[in-house]
Amino acid sequence: MKSVRRFLDDGNKAKITMFFRGREIVRPELGMKVFERIIQLLTGKFNIEQQPKLLGKSITMVIAPK
User: What is the pTM of this model?
Assistant: First the structure.
């Protein structure tokens, strides 16, 4: 989170990706909970350009500064 916040404070976009390995893909809702928590921590200062989306074995989200 410190790196994401630093990128956004510098005026850059941040792409957050979570990869699932092996049997972890059976429970993607746990990964979505992590992304919901990230969204709650960054509310207000930043825009979410791309909502968290499950693509194959990964979840990706793009955040941009306001």
Answer: 0.83
